[in-house]
Amino acid sequence: MSGEDEFTPRLGRPRDVGAAGGRRFKSQLTRAAKRLSSSTGKTVFSGAQIARGSGAGRASQFRQSPYPKFRMRRVVVKVHIARATRGLGPAAFRAHLRYIQRDGVDRDGEGGELYGRDADRIDGSLFEQRSATDRHQSRFIVSPEDASELGDMKETVRALMAQAEKDLGTRLDWVAVDHHNTGHPHTHIVVRGKDQLGRDLIIARDYLTKGIRERASAIVTDELGPRRDLEIARAQERDVTAGRMTRLDAKLEQLARDGDLTRPGGMSKLSRFDRTLIQRRLEHLRGMGLASARGDGAWALEEGWKERLQTIGREGDRIREIAAAFKTGDGLSGRVYDPTHENVPAIVGRVVTDGPEEELRNRRYLILEALDGERWHVGLGETLPGAVPPKDAVVEISPAARSPRASDKTIARIAALNGGLYSDSLHKAFDPASRADYRLAHIRRLEALRRAGFVTRDSDGRFAIGADYLAKAARFETARTGGVRVEVKSWLSVEAQITRRAPVWMDDVDRESLTGKGFGQDTASALSARRAFLEREGWLGEDGRLKPGMRDQLAAEELKSAADRIEGKGAFLKLEDGMSISGVYERPVDLAQGRFALVTRSKEFTLVPWRPELERYRGAEISVKARTGGIDWSVGRSKGIGR
């Protein structure tokens, strides 16, 4: 024992093996772990554990490739999961398919055709029938940077979807259509929300945001080969002078520190070539008023530069859409209708065309020619299927009232009584008679506002509602709907109104208010022909308008004539004040006096004034009751479908 520290052993009880000491140490370790851990509370179900493609999505970041990343062909993939909200969902599914077919153009300039895994032409109605009960559908836009070199994109899309089926572990039910009528050829793909066993198809976020884009890039690179130095240089050169957000701007955003870009900072870490590109991009942004050079060689980005650049890009797209709609080559560019500006006038004009403003979400725009000849681009926001005015219809555009929904006022009232919080349980306590689906509609409204960044939700599912909630909800509603009120003055063109034996929009137009160019000139000529027709028929009064009593008489005759042309629906029932009918809303019927809704039941049908909200329930049973000046209608046993 020499040279070692002495110690005195402490003996325990006979047959004691030290178990108590082990238990004490385990207890101490458990208590320490609890102190170090933080309670996360109740978590919200995300579906990540059961989503398909999660492994493939994460693996895409580490997947080996024979080429460096900068050599890979670039592909933009946009994704939107469209949910079948009550009433509107199935109708929106149908509308999206029809929009992408109507807007689609193949390489030969022909109309867009749906295609799929095994056929170059597919009947969209069959896909609609299979999707009728789906809770959601996945929409993709796939846009290779070098799409023009691919030729027919069908085989590329089929290869991508075959790879997606392997990654997701299920057969997919999908259709696609190519669009070659823009500067960037792209493909729309719609995937049903069911897997091959009929279960809900839940795709992992990683795969949607990264995995499918990496797969598309690899497939296009295999077809065309890696990008050459000249191709890379040309693509970067385009980014330098683009009037929109580019990849160079994303680099600028990363390099910026409180709006400043300094030489010794992040810029020094870039290659000489990248520094030159960044410098040239900053010079271009300075010319646009979005950046400024400082005396010490640094740059400052103006406040809100990113949002302003995005706005400039959108306005440029809209001006090009106006030019494409008219195809006159007269150099007139047109204007963008902005309802947020003060003193924005109401505009009466004819519809030249409509198109997709945001293709994944059914946001549409109108191109109008006003009575004074001015050309306008008008954003409609998310538009109900079937509610877009057709070509040559006469419409009046004005700023919409900025107001929150009735449901927003209910949410604000409940939150005010509960310390700024809203939840399903708080709503039930506030209104014990409320139905579960009614409260769910409020939750869905808040989820939409949460995704837009207007409200927050905690882990217990409670929403934080600020004092300015109603103002935020009004702004959200304005952005969603485009902030524009569209009143259709006539669903018929001015030429079709001339000899119509019915009251028409031109009967109330003042000849002196019409100018001598564009749509105003066409309307003036049509108005002269219309009044000559009315005079021949003996319907023209001394004041140049319809004689007293003729309007109601002609309207009744037109309605009866329209009913006589509807076959196979039984007898026509004209609803008088106080009368009601329950039946299926089938479709709209356009007359000179306005648009009507065709409602049918077993042995009879009726025509009632149409409203845009009815398009939510096309094909569904509704109840209609006539009243003085209009109609009241509802779906099923609910009180109505007002806002």
Automatic annotation (TrEMBL):
Residues 1-24 are annotated as: Disordered. It holds the Pfam family DUF3363. InterPro entries: DUF3363. It comes from the Bacteria. This is Conjugal transfer protein TraI.
